[in-house]
Design brief:
316 residues, alpha+beta, Aminopeptidase, 13-stranded mixed β-sheet, elongated, binds coenzyme A
């Protein structure tokens, strides 16, 4: 068994090993490229493969360590600059399993230490990501990480709802009753940009608005909804149409305007639109679960976020 940075030639072997080790995440080559290989923070030394002597892949670690607070993806923040992120990890069941895990995790940790990081997280990485943590169904992968000193810090959920619910339209109508000449719900129009800029600054959710976010809003967008009161924006939500599954998120209501039903209004409106466009279900990943369950959604997938403090290496 030996460990080395992944190259383009390894892609097919990685896909095969990935499907066997992570059956709940059947990846396409295109998605792997986009999320792992083309992540601007992914350095070659952070993407390692363990290979058996016959060339088969027996493990992978994809680790990122932002070199500046924002990082090359522009989504990092001060509070997490001390962390590296193990955004992808698996070890295949094989004779070399123990050795592969020892070397891969040891290398990932020393890569992060070398980048000045004090902690390695699986995952909560807000740059291009596959999952927000490790799916709780991957018991063996979690055992391997636990054995190497990774501890659970929190649980994150994905949620979904069936849009064929006959009560949906009534709930949306009731929520719309709060709209008035002062409180309007609008489809995105580029002329809202100056008002949106003030919303983004006050909202302080920079991972959703990395540098250059304005370019994604340079055209009218029917899947981006704005809640505007007088001259200011109080809420923003977007969804991605799909059949049979649409996606929802992110959503943000300014802190001072929360608890008045504005979030639910935006959510219900997106659900109605997704339904009218042919979706049967809508899903939201990495969710603020209680907001969604209060609106009739269910938890469909659960992840553990694990972390390990990186000891400082002693100088000789
Ligand atoms: C989540 C968010 C959009 C909700 O907006 P809101 O206008 O306060 O939502 P509503 O007033 O419609 O609340 C509806 C229900 O959700 C629940 N809820 C809303 N926000 C919640 C939160 N942050 N935590 C727990 N429960 C919450 C409330 O229990 C409420 O139920 P109630 O009416 O029985 O009290 C808002 O809190 C927000 O912008 N949070 C920060 C960004 C975020 O977490 N986005 C979601 C990412 S998936």
């Amino acid at each position: 068994m030996h460990v080395a940075p992944m190259s383009e030639d390894d892609l097919q072997h990685v896909m095969r090993a990935w499907s066997a080790a992570l059956p709940h995440d059947q990846l396409t080559e295109q998605r792997f490229r986009r999320i792992i290989l083309e992540d601007p923070n992914q350095e070659p030394e952070g993407l390692l493969l363990a290979k058996a002597d016959d060339g088969s892949v027996v493990g992978l670690t994809a680790c990122v360590a932002r070199r500046t607070v924002k990082g090359k993806d522009g989504r990092g923040c001060e509070g997490e600059f001390r962390r590296g992120f193990l955004k992808g990890v698996f070890v295949a069941e094989s004779e070399a399993e123990e050795a592969a895990a020892d070397v891969l995790l040891g290398e990932a940790e020393s890569y992060c230490r070398g980048a000045g990081k004090e902690e390695l997280r699986v995952t909560e990485y807000a740059g291009p990501y596959l999952w927000p943590g490790i799916d709780v169904r991957y018991e063996r992968q979690r055992e391997i990480l636990a054995k190497h000193g990774y501890r659970d810090v929190r649980t994150i959920e994905d949620v979904a709802v069936d849009l064929r619910d006959p009560g949906l339209r009534g709930r949306a109508e009731r929520a719309r009753a709060m709209l008035s000449a002062e409180l309007e719900m609008l489809d995105w129009e580029p002329e809202l940009l100056p008002t949106m800029q003030r919303f983004v600054v006050e909202g302080e959710e920079l991972q959703w608005f990395p540098p250059g976010w304005e370019s994604g809003l340079s055209q009218p967008r029917e899947n981006v909804l704005i809640l505007k009161k007088g001259r200011e924006i109080l809420g923003w939500a977007q969804y991605s149409p799909g059949r049979p599954r649409a996606g929802f998120g992110p959503i943000l209501v300014l802190e001072r305007a929360r608890g008045r039903g504005y979030g639910s209004l935006l959510l219900l409106e997106c659900m109605i639109r997704a339904r009218e466009e042919g979706a049967e279900y809508v899903e939201a990943g990495w969710a603020n679960t209680s907001f969604y369950t209060a609106n009739g959604w269910n938890i469909v997938r659960r992840y553990d976020v694990l972390t390990k403090a990186l000891a400082v290496e002693e100088c000789q």
